[in-house]
Amino acid sequence: MQAHAVPSLLLTIFLLVELPKAWSRRVSRRDLLSRESPLDMSPASFDDQYAGCAAAMEAVLPDLNRTEFSASPVYAEAWKSAAARWQERRDWELKGPPSSRQLPPPGFRDEHAVALLAYTANSPLHREFNAAVREAGRSRAYYLRYFPFKTLHFLLTEALRLLRSGQKPRCYQVFRGVHGVRFRPLGPGATVRLGAFASASLMDAAAHQFGEDTFFGIWTCHGVAIKGYSFFPGEEEVLIPPYETFLVVNASVPARGPVRIYLKAQDKASTFNCEYIKEKQCTSGRCKQNNSGKTSQSFRSF
């Protein structure tokens, strides 16, 4: 499905007014400490969208997640903290008037909210997770053997799908600041992906707080506003999935100083789909893939 067309007037306003204003700030950054990285289609990224196998994935997650918790104390601690924060928010909502309660879309459950909170918390989890996502797509075998965040990847992907399905289709003009990496796109006209789950903000000032070695202006049509499920709702966060593709509209890559890149949503592209289910169920003829299953009670307890 093609992304919604961006009105030329909005693009003109964005390029000529918003981006120069955001990028005119002084940057005191030690450029030699920043590493360079290509901005391309991220061919090694694990980009599974779990199309047609959500229910089958949910059925195998309880045991899988317990294994992943024991393998990663960072993941286990982040999940525990996020679950406590989610319970606090729910308790607070129950004490308030019904009009103040956040109504999730159909199919969106506690574990989706906790996954978003764990990802957005101020912990090492999101860095470790995204580093693994960028490499897990080397091959199906590599994902199955070495990727330690299969549960979190699925839950974040499903959370974005469910939240997007509960909203009117729309695109967002967002900003993303990156610290420590100077991205180098192939040039205007190139098609690229961000290669992992990418946090951006509706506010350029919030994005600058996260880094200025590379500063993105992004028009995203598959990114989802997650303010109500972020550890820091004031950041007006939009989470962009690894499978969204973008056109490089403009890029400035000076020898020193911040890299500036503007991306426009194109479409989405995935190499992988339902890889864990194919391995665990389909090869034995037991797979039954659909998107309509309920999460088991045992899953909710982890």
TrEMBL record:
Signal peptide (residue range): 1-24
Taxonomy, superkingdom: Eukaryota
Keywords tagged on the record: Disulfide bond, Glycosyltransferase, NAD, NADP, Nucleotidyltransferase, Signal, Transferase
Pfam families: ART
Reactions accelerated catalytically: L-arginyl-[protein] + NAD(+) = N(omega)-(ADP-D-ribosyl)-L-arginyl-[protein] + nicotinamide + H(+)
PROSITE patterns (UniProt xref): ART, TR_MART
GO molecular function, one term: NAD+ poly-ADP-ribosyltransferase activity
Stated family: Belongs to the Arg-specific ADP-ribosyltransferase family.
Protein name per the record: NAD(P)(+)--arginine ADP-ribosyltransferase
Species name: Sarcophilus harrisii (Tasmanian devil)
Organism ancestry: Eukaryota, Metazoa, Chordata, Craniata, Vertebrata
Primary gene name: ART1
